[in-house]
Automatic annotation (TrEMBL), chains A, B:
PANTHER family: C-1-TETRAHYDROFOLATE SYNTHASE, CYTOPLASMIC, C-1-TETRAHYDROFOLATE SYNTHASE, CYTOPLASMIC-RELATED. The keyword Amino-acid biosynthesis applies. Residues 139-279 form the Tetrahydrofolate dehydrogenase/cyclohydrolase NAD(P)-binding domain. NADP(+) binds at residues 165-167, 231. Keywords: Amino-acid biosynthesis, Histidine biosynthesis, Hydrolase, Methionine biosynthesis, Multifunctional enzyme, NADP, One-carbon metabolism, Oxidoreductase, Purine biosynthesis. This is Bifunctional protein FolD. Pathway: One-carbon metabolism; tetrahydrofolate interconversion. Belongs to the tetrahydrofolate dehydrogenase/cyclohydrolase family. SUPFAM superfamilies: Aminoacid dehydrogenase-like, N-terminal domain, NAD(P)-binding Rossmann-fold domains. It comes from Paragemmobacter straminiformis. Its EC number is 1.5.1.5, 3.5.4.9. Signal peptide: none annotated. The lineage of its organism: Bacteria, Pseudomonadati, Pseudomonadota, Alphaproteobacteria, Rhodobacterales. It catalyses: (6R)-5,10-methylene-5,6,7,8-tetrahydrofolate + NADP(+) = (6R)-5,10-methenyltetrahydrofolate + NADPH; (6R)-5,10-methenyltetrahydrofolate + H2O = (6R)-10-formyltetrahydrofolate + H(+). GO terms for cellular component: cytosol.
Length: 292, 292
């Protein structure tokens, strides 16, 4: 194996330590960062995420309130709940856990979260702001993947990058984040004729598709960086989208699954929580100053 | 010359004819589409655009009011003006002409236009909506370029596309629009090591950089489509970003400048005006129905 294995947990720990410092400073100023998580129905997978986020949030000094609503709640009622959270100055960030019941379209909820409290970076305005290179609250997984790449000794400006997967919350945001940093980005997906032609020409490959074994060693340029965002369950184990062994023979750097992008995603969520709190504090200060 | 020259004016005329029908129907229902154009200071270039837009708007049954404010207006005053236009139900679309004076940051104004009246498709939420494949009011030039490509007998799904230029209002939106249609997109820009490597592999090339002669025939795959969005003045003539003669020898289709993307851009603005009017009418109907 030639690839350096990227330690996602170590990167996450560094980020979370910074978060803890900023959260403590904000708390001293009377602005303890506070997240509210919304989940609907009785879903074990969502609850696992919630427990994980709560644990890491509280360890970093970010308060975390988990709310669960019955499966029967309507979209109107949920949007009412969100309106209340938007207006509550003690709430700094709102998280919407998935999966949601079939009658609750996730996009409608994403639009209902106030952009200033959109710690998951899902509101169309947050996405649009990133396209405009005004990165404030970005989509956590995408930001995490890019942050990991930025820790490598690669010059991002002019880098040839291939993003496999064009999802709205991961693949596309990664693409425009990397574009904003000066990379030449190609986005591949299930309709691409020959993904390997594009991935083999790239210095860095991001994959977020949800297909175990999709990326194999012969699809990579020797020495390339491979950032694997996929999370799949295969025979009781959690694996990414890369065929790890063959990729690790060719790549220069590779993220393991688990222990790669996952931990950094939560750290980014907490970074967003602290940033959102600061933005709201500035917003309120300006509003009060103007009223005086 | 092998390339078929794409007739932008003809495409624009077809689109405008549809707009005229829809505008007439809306006017009959009491909702004549109405655009308000805002320009600041005394700039001849902006006035040319305004005259052109007004002429084409009125020919399509879209009312057009041009407002000009003195150079000395402040950002706060202008945002106040926009707030008034946002609230006025007789105004269906707001256009912000460029250039603006140095003390007026264009992004602040773009954010101040209500997304429902954002006929230029510049509000971050409009851009974010495109990334989410919810195309309603898209950025006019980008939408025009893609609409032109869609008139060609090319299967967009799986098409290898190269976008040269990564601007926030043209290059990037074209990339996301084409991704949404299933193309494999590579975005090149001034930091790209070798644009020709990417452009020569593409079935369709979009160029929007503002450099005359940037794209030459040897940078194209024979038979490719070239959509030239550049507008440059060279020795008294208006030219695009392509070295037209050498490109026309190699390309399968090419847009001339002028007479290519430009006319279609205005037609898209008018399409957006009619769509915005319809969305506002539905919004008001729903609001009144709820209040009863």
């Amino acid at each position: 194996m030639t690839a350096t294995v990227i330690d996602g947990r170590a990167i996450a720990a560094r980020m979370t330590a910074e978060v803890a410092q900023e959260a403590a400073a904000l708390a001293q100023a009377g602005w303890e960062p506070r997240l509210v998580s919304i989940s609907v129905g009785d879903v074990a997978a969502a609850e696992l995420y919630v427990r994980n986020q709560r644990r890491q949030a509280e360890a970093a000094g970010v308060a975390f309130e988990a709310r669960n609503y019955p499966e029967t709640i309507s979209l109107e009622q949920l949007t009412g709940v969100l309106a209340g959270l938007n207006a509550d100055p003690r709430v700094n960030g709102i998280i919407i856990q998935r999966p949601l019941p079939a009658h609750i379209p996730v996009k409608a909820l994403q639009k209902a979260v106030h952009p200033l409290k959109d710690v998951e970076g899902m509101h169309p305005a947050s996405i649009g702001n990133i396209v405009y290179n005004d990165l404030a609250l970005g989509p956590c997984t995408a930001v995490a993947a890019v942050e990991i790449l930025k820790t490598l000794p690669l010059k991002v400006e002019g880098l040839d990058v291939c993003v496999i997967g064009h999802s709205e919350i991961v693949g596309k945001p990664i693409a425009f984040l990397m574009m904003g940093l000066g990379a030449t980005v190609t986005v591949c997906h299930h309709m691409t004729r020959q993904v390997a032609v594009h991935s083999r020409a790239a210095d860095a490959v991001f994959v977020a598709v949800g297909k175990p074994g999709l990326v194999t060693g012969n699809m990579l340029k020797p020495g390339a960086a491979l950032i694997d965002i996929g999370i799949n369950r295969v025979e009781g184990r959690t694996v990414g989208d890369a065929d790890y062994d063959s990729c690790a023979e060719v790549a220069g750097w590779i993220t393991p699954v688990p222990g790669g992008v996952g931990p950094v995603t939560v750290a980014v969520l907490l970074k967003n929580a602290v940033l959102a709190t600061r933005m709201q504090r500035d917003h309120y200060s300006a509003a009060f100053a103007a009223a005086v």
